[in-house]
Amino acid sequence: MRERLELILQVLRSARPIAEKNPVHGRVVERIDEAIRQAENLLRAARCGDQRNH
Prior knowledge:
The protein contains two helices and no strands. It is an all-alpha fold. It is elongated. The chain starts with a helix and ends with a helix.
């Protein structure tokens, strides 16, 4: 799951500058930011869970 979240974060972070170039995509940038925050939180939780299991 961690690998998948890391991939999702990578894609979202690379998509953000593309969306920023077009002012019409203001909402898209906001949603990308929110998705990045959520993915970071999930990844943090997954890492903590992995540490507890070892």
